[in-house]
Amino acid sequence: MPSYKAPLRDIQFVINEVLDTENLYQGLKGYEEATPDLMNAIIEEGAKFAENVLSPLNQSGDEEGCVWSEEGVKTPAGFPEAYKQYVDNGWPSLSAEPEFGGQDMPSMLGIVINELAGTANWSWLMYPGLSHGCIKTLEAHGSPEQKQQYLPKLVSGNWTGTMCLTESHCGSDLGLLRTKAEPQADGSYAITGTKIFISAGEHDMSDNIVHIVIARMPDAPEGTKGISLFVVPKFNVNEDGSIGDRNSVHCASIEKKMGIKASATCVMNFDSAKGYLIGEPNRGLNMMFTFMNTARIGTAIQGLAHAELAYQGSLEYARERLAMRSLTGPKNPDGPADPIIVHPDVRRMLLTQKSIAEGSRAMLYYLAQLGDIVERGDEESAKKADDLMALLTPIAKAFVTEAGLEAANHGIQIYGGHGFIREWGMEQIARDARIATLYEGTTGIQALDLIGRKVLGSGGKLLMGFTEMMGEFVAENDDEAYAEFTAPLTKYKDEWLTMSLEVGGKAMENPDEAGAASVDYLMYSGYVALAYFWAQMAVVAHKKIAEGEGDTAFYEAKLMTARFYFQRILPRTMSHKESLLSGAENLMDMPEAMFAF
């Protein structure tokens, strides 16, 4: 398994030079203390924790896995101790509200720390990772009593949180859920049902686990309109905030999985467990989107994390592994062969990994910034940021995880046969990465959300908000020096809009047209969105080189990677365009019986 080294220079480049974080946070109420110096210091400490504590547990955790018993779930050796250190160092409270013990730092900083921890050890991060969504849900929708009862311990990290949505018969179709919530005389509800695929549903790392659960109350409307939201603790909580008796919620089993084996994926049984309604009845799904959108951005970070880790391991191996000679003559004449990094195809894979990781980092940090603007900006800027988040969240979740999986697979390929062997760690990265395209809404689900609700459902308004921003960027950088990036960006921006209109027109006559186009449309959108962020990075690098400021080699490498992305990766959009415009007939015409032939 590659030893993780935090890419601090690139992180600082994105935060400080591309996204101009200092000016943004000085203008957002409550974030004035989030100066570059303070954030850099926090990030550097996060890097040390990720490199020195979490990374050494990554492969051993995968090999040991979790162990279920009737008493509970035992996590791999070192996991509880690492979590205690995480809590003692105050990491869980970084981006939470100060009223309940939070440090009130920007969410973007929390995303950076999650990238560091997740790249070092994604399975471990899943235990504290879902707590953030639990905290955000209670902050936004919980009653004052619920906030006081649960948030201090969740914010401190002494307790962790989960999201309990899925049931075995319904998957992503939450309108089919059967979990019941029966009202009780004391104002609580008896929650009965079984939830599956519950990450960190049971473990030995915290004193209590707070489950956010969707269930259906008696006489609730059918479908998603009848879903309510409840908080259900593993241990009931006394009025003074102390832990009381055990609630009737138990882990029936843990799944045997392809990857993320050190993360407990639980089947949870609720047997008239005591729960408490969050917000209004039958409004649960609306409130759950607070948790789901947080989780989707967190899952997008997984795509970035595995691209980065695969790239680091691949680069080290490619520099050291000797095989064959360069096509243009020996580059290592004193050795028996040249390092494989001299071969064009190996460089193609390395640059693909590099361009995915660095482009995704810029896009996801920007998305996190938008979340901070939604929370702390004025009404106009918050609305604009919210619209951009609505469009970009499904793109980020689906596209970045698909691209991260591709990068992980390239890692195996670069190692050759050794990539298939466990000791090198590359096959674990690929196994761990595979789930990211599935949970928190599959790529297909995200694609339907993008094209159906966000683009066509808004009448194109959300898309035009983003493309107008792209146009403004091009206009502000109308310089021949940047034309190799800005000119293609303009072309793709216009094509994206025209293509959306064409798909929308077809979908008005036949709704299957939207579904048939959806995944290709999302991938097209992802490549173009990433191009926008690569263009921004290229322009900054150009300016820094012209000014003779900073590390010229770093900026030159950034320009070369941007050029690779525009010339080698962005043209993939052409095949997606042809495919999505081919229509629904080639998918829907075949009778179901003929699939057997």
UniProtKB/TrEMBL annotation:
Pfam family, one: Acyl-CoA_dh_N
Positions of the Acyl-CoA oxidase/dehydrogenase middle domain: 163-272
Names of the cofactor(s): FAD
Residue ranges of every copy of the Acyl-CoA dehydrogenase/oxidase C-terminal domain listed in the record: 282-453
Ranges where the Acyl-CoA dehydrogenase/oxidase N-terminal domain occurs: 44-157
InterPro entries reported in the protein's UniProt record: Acyl-CoA_dh-like_C_dom, Acyl-CoA_Oxase/DH_mid-dom, Acyl-CoA_Oxase/DH_mid-dom_sf, AcylCo_DH-like_C, AcylCo_DH/oxidase_C, AcylCoA_DH/ox_N, AcylCoA_DH/ox_N_sf, AcylCoA_DH/oxidase_NM_dom_sf
Entry superkingdom: Bacteria
UniProt entry tagged with the keyword ATP-binding: no
Keywords: FAD, Flavoprotein, Oxidoreductase
Sequence ranges assigned to domain Acetyl-CoA dehydrogenase-like C-terminal in this UniProt record: 466-591
Family: Belongs to the acyl-CoA dehydrogenase family.
Name under which the protein is recorded: Acyl-CoA dehydrogenase C-terminal domain-containing protein
Organism of origin: Congregibacter variabilis
